[in-house]
Design brief:
Layout lengths: L11 E5 L10 H15 L7 E5 L2 E5 L6 H8 L7 E8 L3 H12 L6 E8 L8 H16 L2 E2 L6 E7 L4 E4 L3 E2 L11 E5 L5 H11 L3 E8 L7 H17 L1 E8 L1 H10 L2 H22 L5 E2 L12 H8 L6 E2 L7 H11 L2 H4 L21 H8 L4 H11 L1 E6 L2 E2 L12
Parallel strand pairs: 5-6, 5-7, 10-11, 10-13, 11-12, 13-14
Antiparallel strand pairs: 1-3, 1-4, 2-3, 4-8, 4-9, 7-8, 12-15, 15-16
Helix pairs in contact: 3-4, 5-6, 7-8, 8-9, 8-13
The structure holds adenosine-5'-triphosphate and magnesium ion (MG).
The site of magnesium ion has 2 residues, from loops.
Length: 409
């Protein structure tokens, strides 16, 4: 097995993009977002420069001691397809050969390959010629042999118009698109397993996600608020800064309980949540709502009920988990780290006064009839007005009251 030499500080890290690079005229914008996000992700590390490069970004300096932390953080930035730390040398064969010898010094391996890429066609040797020349050198120096298919060590050599780079290991990034490049959305965040995963999926597709959580405090204890806050903090690893709206729902629920029969309450709760979230979303520039629904998972998530709930929204309601099995969602929640928080016991607003078997085939007309006894606009306006705003980062909620977010026209 090869052991990687960790003593010598590498010059820099190269970050590569893929999908973003294909976005044609939008490319500069996407790369700008990616750089901004990388800067945020690396803000309290020794990294000083995050520079644009052909089809990617260069990060420097990356001292050896900080590399594991830096690698972990880059590995969470959406839009990064792969990255590697590399040694940069002048574009002469001699300099490349010296770098290669020193990079492989101290490594033990029996098989290797050279993977040369030449983005500067003016370089005197072709990629094939570089491979064969450097391959012979490594064979001579180390005694290892070339294996193109299954090498123990893959030695990458890249020649650009300005410099040459040598590196040994490419690390996978998370893919996706840079957070913020796809606009803003408002995710309805319960304390459950599904909605955090749905929010994360939207971040991965380039959305800045704000969170809206409904709680029935003081009708129940504040545990669901605490969970929502903890989940928002955890998910801020992926988007750096988040806004969480904590919306009191007890008054709305009291009114619903007075006039809506038990089997219809869940659907009416969801319609109110959707209306309230939509007002908040529009006030803060979000272009869509996001929920954690998965078709058929529970009685309130039938096609009919989804239609009844969505009919009150004029913004698109996106449910990225709609076609996923529960187990697939749980696996993803575990990978994200939200699962252990989600399964903590809480007093969720919707378990209050709801039957075990809600109506599964509602339609908007019958629900509108039930709601006609309620002053819908007043209930919505009051909940919006009473919403608390928290600015959240990975390391916790910020202590100061949130600065007002600019309203879009
Ligand atoms: P989750 O695991 O996300 O709680 P669920 O399987 O429990 O979802 P429901 O309870 O039917 O499903 O909720 C459907 C969706 O409605 C949730 O995924 C979430 O987006 C939204 N939602 C439910 N309760 C709340 C809440 N208290 N605050 C904010 N959004 C909520
Ligand atoms: Mg739930």
């Amino acid at each position: 097995m090869a052991t990687i030499d960790t003593q010598r500080p590498p010059d820099s890290v190269m970050v590569r993009v893929h999908e973003i690079a294909l976005k044609g005229r939008n490319r500069p914008l996407f790369l700008q977002r990616l750089r901004r996000n990388l800067r945020l992700a690396l803000r309290d590390t020794p990294v000083q420069r995050v520079d644009p490069k052909h089809l990617g970004v260069e990060i420097s300096p990356v001292p050896d001691s900080a590399w594991p932390e830096i690698a972990e953080r880059i590995g969470r930035v959406f839009g990064v397809v792969k990255f590697y730390r590399c040694r940069k040398v002048p574009r002469t064969l001699q300099a490349i050969e010296e770098a290669l010898i020193s990079e492989t010094d101290g490594l033990e391996f029996d098989t290797f390959r050279i993977t040369a890429k030449r983005s500067d066609k003016a370089f005197p040797l072709t990629s094939l010629e570089i491979n064969s020349r450097l391959g012979s050198l490594v064979e001579r120096v180390t005694g290892a042999r070339v294996s193109l298919r299954d090498p123990e060590v893959n030695i990458f050599v890249e020649i650009t118009p300005r410099e040459a780079m040598v590196y040994l290991r490419e690390m996978p990034g998370p893919g996706g698109l840079p957070v913020g490049s796809g606009g803003r959305v408002a995710a309805l965040l319960s304390g459950g397993i599904d909605s955090p995963v749905a929010a994360w999926r939207m971040m991965k597709r380039g959305c800045q996600v704000m969170f809206v959580h409904f709680h029935s405090f003081p009708l129940v204890d504040g545990s669901s608020r605490e969970k929502a806050l903890e989940i928002a903090e955890l998910l801020s690893k992926y988007q750096f800064r988040s806004t969480l709206f904590l919306v009191p729902f007890a008054d709305v629920q009291r009114e619903i309980i007075l006039s809506v029969p038990p089997p219809y309450r869940v659907v009416v709760y969801r319609r109110f949540m959707t209306r309230i979230a939509e007002v908040i979303a529009r006030e803060h520039g979000a272009g869509a709502l996001v929920t954690g629904e998965s078709l058929g998972q529970v009685g309130s998530q039938t096609l009919e009920n989804l239609a009844t709930v969505r009919s009150v929204a004029s913004l698109p309601v996106l449910s990225p988990l709609i076609g996923m099995d529960k187990q697939e969602i749980i696996d993803e929640a575990r990978r994200l780290g939200t699962f252990p928080i989600s399964i903590l016991p809480d007093e969720d607003c919707c378990s209050l006064f709801t039957p075990r078997h809600p109506a599964t085939r509602t339609n908007a007309t019958e629900i509108e009839r039930l709601e006609s006894a309620l002053d819908v606009p007043a209930l919505v306006a009051k909940a919006v007005e009473q919403a608390e705003v928290r600015r959240v980062t990975e390391s916790g909620a910020l202590p100061q009251p949130a600065p007002a977010i600019a309203r879009r026209g």
